[in-house]
């Protein structure tokens, strides 16, 4: 008799827990992300340096990708005359928004700039034509990130290559009219043009380190940004 009673009870429990009667939590993925981010974690100084590098790589890779896509679009639409004004990835809305989230300030500098406001003396590491990064902690609250900018896209030669060979005389006249003190020509593929420099706040770096769900930038087609 007892066995029949237990069997009957199990049948009642099973019928009460049918999948179609279970109410699932909404936004469970988002809740999981928020829960992970609120977990108490011990962050070591070496972890913060790694996070500063990851954040810098992600931000500058995003900006470089958007620059390539934007310049290709504008060159196709209106040539150098239209494209030259768009060669400022640090000012793109998406890049600025990402920098704000990361609590970082980004700029591009060069010893031979197009815009004299970007004139700068680069560190020895930034003068190497490879992917060498410089990541240092300037103070308790600020991290510094620097990465070389290398001309690795043939499209860039239309504005930064050799005058008369890569840059048409008429196009160079337009560049000089807009940037009278231009020095950013005469480059060849593979040469370094300058460097990305980022100043990153510690709280922004720490926040990115604690995010278990963070993802590195992956190149993809982007919408028009202007």
Got a strand count? 4
Query: What is the overall number of helices?
Result: 7
What is the alpha-carbon Rg in Å? 26 Å
Uncertain segments of ≥5 residues (pLDDT<50)?
Answer: 4-25, 123-130, 222-226
Biggest sheet character: 4 strands, antiparallel
Helix content: 40-55%
Q: What do the pLDDT scores average to?
A: 79
Structure description:
- This is Tll0287-like domain-containing protein.
- Residues 96-199 form the Tll0287-like domain.
- By secondary structure, this protein is of the alpha+beta class.
- It has one domain (43-210).
- It has helices spanning 2-16, 28-38, 45-83, 93-102, 157-160, 169-178, 202-210; strands at 104-109, 134-137, 142-150, 192-201.
- It has a 4-stranded antiparallel sheet.
- A hairpin with a 4-residue loop joins strand 2 and strand 3.
- Residues 4-25, 123-130 and 222-226 have low confidence and may be disordered.
Write the layout of secondary structure elements.
Blueprint: H1 2-16, H2 28-38, H3 45-83, H4 93-102, E1 104-109, E2 134-137, E3 142-150, H5 157-160, H6 169-178, E4 192-201, H7 202-210
Antiparallel strand pairs: 1-4, 2-3, 3-4
Helix pairs in contact: 3-4, 3-7
List keywords for this structure.
4 strands; elongated; alpha+beta; disordered C terminus; Tll0287-like_dom; 226 residues; Tll0287-like domain-containing protein
């Amino acid at each position: 008799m007892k066995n029949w009673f237990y069997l009957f009870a199990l049948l009642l429990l099973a019928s009460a827990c049918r999948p179609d009667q279970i109410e699932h939590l909404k936004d469970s993925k988002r809740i999981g992300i928020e829960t992970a981010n609120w977990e108490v974690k011990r962050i070591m100084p070496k972890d913060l340096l790694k996070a500063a590098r990851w954040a810098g790589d992600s931000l500058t890779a995003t900006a470089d990708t958007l620059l390539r896509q934007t310049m290709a679009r504008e060159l196709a639409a209106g040539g150098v005359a239209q494209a030259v004004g768009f060669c400022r990835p640090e000012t793109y809305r998406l890049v600025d928004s990402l920098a704000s989230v990361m609590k970082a300030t980004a700029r591009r500098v060069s010893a031979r700039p197009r815009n004299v406001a970007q004139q700068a003396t680069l560190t020895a590491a930034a003068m190497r034509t490879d992917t060498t990064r410089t990541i240092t902690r300037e103070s308790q609250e600020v991290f510094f990130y620097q990465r070389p900018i290398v001309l690795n896209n043939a499209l860039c030669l239309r504005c930064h290559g050799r005058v008369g060979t890569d840059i048409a005389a008429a196009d160079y006249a337009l560049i000089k009219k807009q940037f009278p003190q231009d020095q950013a020509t005469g480059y060849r593929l593979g040469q370094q043009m300058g460097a990305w420099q980022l100043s990153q706040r510690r709280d922004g770096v720490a926040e990115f380190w604690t995010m278990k769900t963070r993802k590195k930038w992956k190149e993809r087609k982007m919408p028009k940004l202007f």
